[in-house]
Structure formats: structure tokens, C-alpha cells
Amino acid sequence: MKNRINHDQNEVERLDALYRLNLLDTAPSESFDRITRMASQIFGLPIAAVSLTDRDRQWFKSRVGVAHNSIPREKAPCAQVAEQAQQVLIPDLQADSCYRNSILADQGVRFYAGASLTTREGYSLGALCVLGTEPRETTALEMDALNDLAKMVMDQIELQHAFGRIDPLSGLPNRTQFLEDLADQGCDRPGQRRFAALIDLVSPEQLNNGVSAMGAAYLDKIVEDAARIVAGAIGRERTAYHVAATQFAILAPPGVQKGKFIAGLSNMLDRLRGNSNERFITTASVGVAPYTAGETAPAAVLRTIHSAAQAARSRSPMITTYSLASDSAHQRQFHLLGDFGQAMRDEGQLSLVFQPRIDLASGECTGAEALLRWQHPKLGQVSPAEFIPIVEQTSLAEPLLKWVLEAALQQLVQWHAGGKMLRLSINVSATNLKQAGFAQTVQLLLLKHRVRPEWIELEVTESAVMGDIVNATTQLQILVDAGIHVAIDDFGTGHSSLAYLQKLPAKIIKIDQSFVMDMHRGRRERQLVRSMISLAHDLEFQVVAEGVETAEARDCLQEMGCDEAQGYLYGRPMTANMFGSWFEEFSVPQGEMLRIAS
Ligand code: C2E
Ligand code: MG
Ligand code: MG
Fold first, then answer.
1. How many domains does the chain have?
2. Ligand 1 contact via 573 beta carbon (within 6 Å)
3. Exposed, middle or buried by CB within 10 Å (0-12, 13-18, 19+), for 137?
4. Nearest CA to ligand 1 atom 10
5. What is the pLDDT of residues 306-333, one digit of tens each?
6. Do 201 and 265 sit in the same domain of this protein?
7. pTM of the predicted model as reported, rounded to 2 decimal places
8. Residue 592, in any domain of the structure
């Protein structure tokens, strides 16, 4: 009786040890499969398995030559291994009174050898076993090897847990395991060409918005659901990896064509979307990349699928195959962003140039636009059209605006001190408008440099304002009330509705250069600009034309009643010194010019 109680108690503890490892019903893993294959090779037998002893079944974490993934525990020799925590050898099942009538014997198995999978605490989880269809003897060397391999299985299990190879939230193997499985594949099947995919549930921006709106638990739920869908979609035979908080990776089975793999992924995307009414998951994107086992470094596989998934964000149906061109662009963007912080600290990397703005009625230069330039130490001049869109998506947008304002105001103070009474326009990005203390920052800097508000103009693009109309209007209203001018930049390129435009506190509209530069093409193009000008005037905006390159364009705009112009015809963006000289020359009245010339 006492023995029985001890036995039961031991079984409870043994099962507890097994369950705590979270191994049962997990996907196959290359690191276990390699050991199983080795066991089958050493014995020269067709069947081998890592067999875990559950309450009433033997479940195979890894198997060679077995079709099922579990068999009943009753009369399974592996259960004996687990109960006794020691190896079991049955040379001929038919000759063994206990196993003669077992399921295995019924299926034609004659030989069994199993080594115990024993934890450090001494519990046996089951067996690493080899089976044959003929009776067989074993050598001591073979059994030693089987026991060594069983220890390797245990090392692998402990590794997974000691080093956190399993993500606790999804229960899926994590990035470390993904990289290791790829490395294993490289050793086992070098040269094999395969595909990998990354499923990216949300963009970083959506992630932030979602977490701040709904809390982290909401995100956990989405990730758990998605993990289930992804793992379910690829089936038990294959592994889904949880490689980052909201990203999963999968490998295509060997020999599968790209088209078929992508079709499967497309179904998975549908399930992700269909399953959930959360707005989040409808935005999942998928990146696919080819790789060659043993040749493509595991980290490069992860990076390329990541890059493809990023590129897929702007596509429909949001599945993209890796392309070298878009990857190089991503890498460049990544490096630019990484270097920009230093650029703001370094003397001489960033500078402002100034482009004049001309009043068309009087022909005078009334102001200038400050434009940022970046002389990168390795890449040379990088255009603001390239780096501003990257920087403005990050928290660097705030220090960038401060940098530009400081430099611009210093310059303005110098010009005013020298009698050049110009108004300076400064570009503001969408992110700046979202900063809590944006209006206050601008006002404080004006105070610091003792510049009156009416001497500066802030340029915001239509899309920046329309992205968050309520907040943008509030911020801009504070600035306008303080006396600062506000202009809508690149007008005509966004999707703003006129009804909204009318509500904005801005008083100036800058017609995008693309419309102005197209005017020479024909009547329709000119008519478009004419309508924009008259419409803006009806709404009581002042109109500036950008991109004025020719005298014809200037004359045309003058005739249309446009108020101001900016463009290469008058001057390209110039350094402060060059602008100073340009301004002095430009401001000399025509009569004076003649006098000097004579
Ligand atoms: P933007 O504010 O619309 O500036 C006008 C752009 O058109 C400038 O390009 C200018 O050099 C160019 N441009 C001016 N006249 C002509 C012309 O006649 N023909 C042609 N082909 N181009 C002309 P840039 O300096 O490369 O700046 C590009 C954009 O980068 C700017 O467009 C602005 O949106 C952004 N940007 C520049 N500096 C800053 C900054 O300090 N902060 C922010 N947030 N954005 C900036
Ligand atoms: Mg501008
Ligand atoms: Mg513009």
C-alpha cells in the first residue's frame, strides 16, 4: 500500500515536472529531430522517437519512421522507462510476456531500446527510443550512445528553458531558436534553397497608438490570438517562431514553390483579418525572402524577411518578396536615422540655407525660406527630401525643430541688426504639430532671441494639418494669436477639403512647385493655377507660387494676381553669407543700377 502511495505521489510530481516544461503538443524542432535521426542511424533502425510520457499517452516530440504523433500509454515500453527512470531493452517483443500483446507488437514491432530522459531532479519525462521490425541484440556501445543522446535531448530541453527559447506569451519558439534552427539546417542540408516569411502584425506607430489607447493586456490578447492562427495555419508539422513582440517567422517546407508558399500566406492573412474585429490585425503585413541553407547567414534571413515585410506595409495585399533595391533603401534610411542624432550635436554637419521670396507687385525681396542641409561625413550632401521624412517619424523631430529655430532666429537677428528687414519662413513637420508644448516652444525661443513674432512664418504642409485637424488647428491658432504667420506649404499635393482649409488659422498658401513648373505645358495647366489663385483669394489667403524658374512663369503669375513668388529665377537656396550679398545686389533700385553702370 505504502509503495503504491509513493508510486502515485512520484507520478504526480513527474507529470508536474513534464507539464512545467510546456513541451507537450509543441511544434517539431530541428534541434530534437537531429538527435532522433542520429539515434536511428547509430542502430541502423527505421524507427526512433523522443517520446514523452503524458498521463495516458506517449507523445512524440520528435520522430523518424512513425506516422502518428502519439500512442496510448498502456503497454508502451517508453512508459516503463519513465516509471522506472532507467533504460529498457526488449530484444524481442514477441518473446516478452508483458509486451507480446501490446499495440506496438500488434503493429509488427519486435525490437525496442529506450534511454530515460531524466531531469536534473531525477524525474523521467519519457524515452529516447529506437525500434525495429526484427528481433535484435545490442552492444554496450550502442546503449551507451543511446544514453548519451538522451542526455543531449535533456540538454536541449534545458537549454530551451534556461535561455528562454520559448516565448512565454505565445508558447512558440523565439528568435534565438529561429536562428539556431536555421543554423542547424545549414549543417544538415547545406545548399538547399528555401523560403522564409515574416508576419508583422502592426506597424510601430499602430503599436504605440494601440498600447497607449488600450493598454498592454490588449496587445497580449492580439498576439496570443495571432500566434494561434499562425501556428494553426501552417499545421502541426511545421514551426512558427515568435521572433519579436508582434512578429512571427515561418520557414517554407523544402521543395515548396514560392507561388504556393505565398498563396498559403495569403490565406493566413485572411484568417488573421477575418478572425478579429480588432482594427489592428487587419494591418498585418508579410515579407518573404529566399535563402540557401548553410550559405545565407541566419541573421541575414531574419533581416531580409523583415525588410520585405516593411516594404509590404505600403502594398496590397500586403505580401512582398524581398528585393535588394528596397532593402538597400531601408538600410540607408536606417543608417541615416542612426547618424542624425550625432549630426545635431556636431559642428558643421547641419546648416541652413536661405531662398528669397519676392513680392510680385513691388518686385522686392520681403523674406526668405530657411531650408536645412546635411553634409554627412561619409555620404556627402543628403537631401532634406530624403532625411526629413525619416526623421520626422521619430522623437528626433522635436530636437530638430529646436535646432532649426535656434539657427534661423540667430540669423534673423543678425540680418535685422544689419538693416535687412526680412521675414523668415521655417518648415514645421507633422510630428512637431503633435508635440504637446509645440506652440510654447516656438514662443519661448522667440523671447530668448528677442525676435518679434511677426518676423517669422511657419510652413506646415496640408497633409500635416489634415492628419490631426483638431489639434493642429488649436496649436496654430495659439501661434497666430501671438502674431506669428502661418503658411500652408505644398498646396495642391494633399487631399484637403476646402471646407477645412477655410477653418485653418493660416493666412498664406504656397502653391506647390509641380503646378507652377507645369504651366508652360498648356492652357489647362495655366488655368489650374489661375483657379487655385482665385479660389485662395476668395478664401482670403495670400498666395505664394513655388518653383518659379522662368520669366514667363513670373509674368504669367503676375498677370493672374499671385502675390509672391519663390524659385530659381530669383535665387537658389544660399548660405547666409551668399544670401547677404545677393540681397544687397537685388535691393539696389533699377535707377541706382543704371547710375553705377554708367
Ligand atoms: P519645401 O518646403 O516645399 O521647400 C521648397 C523646395 O523646393 C526646396 O527643396 C527648394 O530648394 C526647392 N526649390 C525652390 N525653388 C525651386 C525651383 O525653382 N525649382 C526647383 N526644381 N526646386 C525649387 P529642398 O531644400 O530640397 O527641401 C525639400 C523639402 O524638405 C522642403 O520642401 C521641406 O518640405 C523639407 N525641409 C527642408 N528644410 C526643412 C526643415 O528645416 N524642417 C522641415 N521640417 N522640413 C524641411
Ligand atoms: Mg517649405
Ligand atoms: Mg513647398
1. 3
2. yes
3. exposed
4. 573
5. 989 988 887 767 888 887 777 777 788 8
6. yes
7. 0.60
8. no
